[in-house]
Every structure is written in C-alpha cells, then in structure tokens.
Amino acid sequence: MEVVHIETTSKRYPLYLGEAVLTELSSVLAALKPAVSKVLIICDETVAGLFLEQVQESLQQEAHVHVVPSGEQEKSFANYYAAQTSALEAGLDRRSVIIAFGGGMVGDLAGFVAATYMRGIRFIQLPTTLLAHDSAVGGKVAINHPLGKNMIGAFHQPEAVLYHTPFLRTLPEKELRSGYAEMMKHALIWDADFYTWLRDQVRILSDLQGEVLQTALKRAIGVKAAVVAEDEHETGIRAYLNFGHTLGHALETACGYGKLTHGDAVAAGMRFAILLSETVYGKSLGYQELSDWFFSYGYPPCPALDAAELLQLMKKDKKAAGGTVHMVLMPEIGRVETMSVSDELIVQVLRQFQEQEGLR
Ligand SMILES: NC(=O)c1ccc[n+]([C@@H]2O[C@H](COP(=O)([O-])OP(=O)(O)OC[C@H]3O[C@@H](n4cnc5c(N)ncnc54)[C@H](O)[C@@H]3O)[C@@H](O)[C@H]2O)c1
Ligand SMILES: [Zn+2]
Fold first, then answer.
1. Which residue has the least CA distance to atom 13 on ligand 1?
2. What Gene Ontology terms describe what this protein does at the molecular function level (predicted)?
3. 55: domain range?
C-alpha cells in the first residue's frame, strides 16, 4: 500500500492507494478525532450493486446508506436535497462522517452535502473510478446547474482518500477512457517525463492494470497533489488543472449532462487547447502527433456544434473574467500557463479544429 500525503493550507490528509486499501476503512474511521457518531454512505446505484455489501462488511459499525441514480445528470439540486433529507432523517450530527463512495459524480455531490450539512461535517472519499484520482483529491465539491457545470459548490477537504484499486476492475472501457483523459492532462500540464512514460507503458487502455496502473495513479495523483499544495483555492496555478476544461465543460453543457463523458469532453478540449497554443505561440507543438495519440485510445471526435454557441458557453465558465475567455495554453509539453484569448481567435481556431476533427 502506498500513502501519499495531500497537503493543503487548510488540511493535511492521507491518500491510501493499493490492492487492499478497503481493509483500512474501519481503522481510518476509528482514528478520527472527535470520535465518529454516525456514518452515512452516499453512493450511486451501479456502485451500490457492485460493492456496497463489501464496504458495509468492512465497517465495524452500522452505516446509513443513501443511494442516488447513476450518471452526471444526477449531480443535481434534487439529489443534493434528497441526500440532505437522508442525513437529517438518519440523525447525523456534527461528529458524523459521510463516505463518498463512487466516481467523481458521487464524490462531488456527497462532498458538497458534507460541506454544507450543519455548516460542514467530515467526509471520506472512497473512489471507484479512474477519473476519481483527480476528483477525490483537492477538496473541490459541487453540483451542476442546468446553466453550467459545477456552478454551485465549495472547497471542502476530505479526512482521507482510500483508493482501493480492485474497484476499478469492473469499469467499462468508456469510463476507463474518461478517467485516463485526466491522467493525460496531469502529464501534459506538469510532467513531460510522465507523458513519455504513458506513451511507452499505456499503449492501450487495458495496459492500465497491476504495476502500470499503480504507478500511473501514483504519478498522476502526485501532480494533482503538487498543484493543490501550492494553490488550494485557485487563486493561481490551480487553474492549470482546467487544461482542456474550458471547451470541455462547454461541450458537456451543450450536449446535455451525461451524453458525453467528462473525459471525452476534456480530451476534445485538450486537443483544441493544443491547436490554439500552436497559433498563439506561433510554433509547432506536435498537434497532429498528439491528436493521433488521443485517438489511439478511442476518444471520439469533438461533436460538430456551432462555434459561436460554444464560445458563449465558454464565456459562462467560472474562469472567464470580465467577459473574456481565460484559457490554459501549453507552450511546451509538461508546462502550461493561463492567458485571455479574444473571441475572434477562439472562434477562428475552433472552426479550424472542428474541420480537423471532422476528418477523423
Ligand atoms: N472535484 C474535482 O476536482 C473534479 C475533478 C475532475 C472531475 N470532477 C467531476 O467528476 C465527475 C466525473 O467523474 P466520473 O467519471 O468518475 O463519473 P461518475 O461518478 O458518474 O462515474 C461514471 C460511471 O461509472 C459508474 N461506476 C463508478 N464506479 C464503477 C465501477 N467501479 N465499476 C463499474 N462502474 C462504475 C458510475 O455508476 C457511472 O455510471 C464529473 O462530474 C466531473 O465534473 C471533479
Ligand atoms: Zn476534469
């Protein structure tokens, strides 16, 4: 078992990573101070069907359970409200703990419930997707609004993250690919050596198992942890993690939540950001080769949506300032920076990008 220490200004907490991490859950709960009164597990239907019993058996105390339907569209006000109702009915108090058991959808929803229930109670992340190597670390929790993704949220760090990798074995390929996009992101924004390693070691998605999976997770989490340690509340470099997300979130909103996986949307957003970077910096960054690398894993081409409409959605992004789109651009592999980009240039390169994607 590996332990990564996540250090933020507001809290330091451990992330356990490995093949038998679930066995630690009850001792992690038992070690919390003040002692835990009640436990509420929040998970989605799919995860409940697969692993809920196993988790309940691993606990020493009876836990309350709140199950939400699966899918991004469920990261909603309605489910936030329903989970708060469950917490109240179960009699959770300020010494209680919520276990966010699932992928990023449940992690964000349950984390936001924990952040706001009685002005904030403790929670533990028990991630079950590859994508959650990103979402379970760093304390951003949120629900979606029909007008924009993650628009209602908070910063609330968990007490611990328990990454039990056997949970990942039942992930459908589509979800593995979705999570892998954030892994590619972590390499591209921060660690050129990790990028080379991924190209070499992960030829196809099913290479993500055993030692390769553990190493890939550890390195990607390491990037996330390093960024968050420097900038917990996104006043500076944490924005780097939004590489590919400005267009990615716009695509998710435009297509309707749950139609396109988060990773497929972000992967398209990264390809666009790379093409835009080539234009802005006036040099080749190997766009074609990088694009081929993405498509080798089966990422779908960017949906052919109207460029002007996408621009409007990009402007609604939380990172847009004063009406200009702020993009994370990549001057070289392994390094990014933020920059405001004019509407004209966004639309021009977006059209060029969609043409390229249409040829795939
Ligand atoms: N908070 C953050 O910092 C942050 C960072 C990145 C992404 N996110 C958020 O994360 C979400 C995406 O996360 P996700 O991709 O994990 O989505 P998800 O939680 O919706 O999971 C994807 C699908 O996989 C299923 N599933 C989960 N675990 C499984 C398993 N072990 N076996 C089989 N099926 C399983 C789920 O039921 C769901 O249908 C988005 O809402 C995104 O905004 C948040
Ligand atoms: Zn993301």
1. 104
2. 3-dehydroquinate synthase activity; metal ion binding; nucleotide binding
3. 2-170
Residue nearest to atom 11 of ligand 1 (CA): 104
pLDDT tens sequence across 44-76:
999 999 999 999 999 999 999 999 999 999 999
> Residue 189 pLDDT more than 70?
yes
238 and 140 assigned to the same domain: no
Q: Is residue 146 located within the same domain as residue 25?
A: yes
Please tell me whether 70 is known to bind a ligand. Answer: yes
Domain boundary among 121, 154, 170: 170
Note the pLDDT of residue 296: 98
- Report the number of distinct structural domains present in the chain: 2
Which spans in 65-208 are helix H? 77-89, 104-116, 132-135, 173-190, 192-201
- pLDDT tens by residue, 81-130: 999 999 999 999 999 999 999 999 999 999 999 999 999 999 999 999 99
Q: How far apart are CA 360 and CA 358, in angstroms?
A: 5
| Domain-terminating residue out of 146, 170, 194 | 170
Ligand 2 centre to CA of 92 (Å) is 31
